[in-house]
Amino acid sequence: MTNVPPPSQADAAPTVEDDAPRPEIFRAAVASLTSAKARPEVHVEPLRPPQRLAPYSYAIAAEVRGPDGGEPATGRLVLLHDPDGQEAWDGVLRLVAFVSAEMDSQIGVDPMLPAVGWSWLTDALHERAAAYRAAGGTVTQTTSTRFGDIHGPRTTVELELRASWTADTPDLGPHLRAFVDLLCTAAGLPPEGVTVLSPA
Question: What is this structure's pTM?
């Protein structure tokens, strides 16, 4: 299990003046993210956050690393804090997630894939007991076919999930673990603690 690295000055810079005191709820939320542990298959690091979505923001990038060194799934999780709240949020702490994953070609053509992809997120939030509300987002299923001399599989399917939800408390550890679970599910990894036996 690996912890999220602490933010650098640039990584967690709020959109207000650097020397302005940061609200306690925001500092507690960031601390809960940086102290949370992720699965060893997932590499997590701070990312420069967006600067115009909220007065305060913090972001991480995550990638699932396969045994062959590939990255079957990547994602970003952004924390936004507005002390005055925003009408669409129904709260003051908003999490924004983006996940991109290559899918098995047989699964990828299933018309139910977007609904299944969305359930991966909501199921992970429930299983991790991450209290949330006002969730919304989109799931996009894209099929690409290669022709000519382009190397790689002839047909590839990519799933992209964009979602946001409001956290009920500044304890965001369960939300980060749910986000990691979503990434691992999209990458085709078994649940944490489960070992898949190879055929003899």
Answer: 0.82
